[in-house]
Write a structure and sequence with these properties.
Layout (H helix, E strand, L loop, with lengths): L1 H24 L15 E4 L5 E3 H4 L5 E6 L4 H17 L5 E6 L5 H10 L5 E4 L4 H6 L6 E5 L5 E6 L7 H12 L4
Length: 178
């Protein structure tokens, strides 16, 4: 009898998760490698102005990083991202690090200051970017080529300044815009 109830519970749970996914992602194309990076709007915390991916980053080689100040893997990957940006930023590489913190700009600005971040720190407290990029947690990163297509997706923390990452980004930077 207990097995039957466990089976019923598992089926109901699966249907509930499936229903949630249908509602959340209805009408959206799956985000994946080769897909065009979705546009988003967030506030640049240095300039105080709203920026969009299409207006600010499209046409360049950009790492879109979705993160939060309370996220331990985010804290671990920031120094590697900053090292990569310092090395390849002069060649045209951009990082759009979009914080989804709901606690206000001051917390995000303090984090960026504490970690000596030199790349673009953006803020989207509404979490709209999470829906546009269909994230399942933080950090999640999307490497976008000059053609606006996603080249790599990294879930959770990643060592962005590794030799392999540098090679991929250098190759993307060497590819002319189409």
């Amino acid at each position: 009898m207990r097995r039957q109830w466990l089976a019923v519970f598992a089926i109901v749970l699966a249907l509930g998760i499936g229903g949630w996914a249908v509602v959340r992602f209805a009408g959206q194309t799956a985000i994946g490698v080769g897909q065009v990076a979705p546009d988003f709007t967030a506030k640049n915390l240095v300039t105080g102005k709203s920026v969009s991916f299409n207006d600010t980053y499209r046409g360049g080689v950009t790492l879109v990083n979705i993160w939060a100040t309370w996220c331990e893997p985010c804290k671990e990957e920031v120094p590697a991202m900053d090292s990569l940006y310092r090395a390849l930023g002069p060649a045209g590489f951009r990082i759009a690090a979009v914080s989804i913190d709901r606690g206000g700009e001051a917390v995000v600005k303090q984090f960026a200051s504490d970690y000596h971040v030199t790349f673009d720190v953006l803020h989207d407290p509404s979490g709209a970017i999470e829906q546009r990029y269909q994230t399942t947690g933080v950090p999640e990163s999307f490497l976008v080529g000059r053609d606006g297509r996603i080249v790599r997706i990294m879930l959770r923390g990643y060592t962005w300044n590794s030799p392999a990452s540098r090679r991929v980004i250098e190759q993307l930077l060497a590819t002319p815009a189409s």
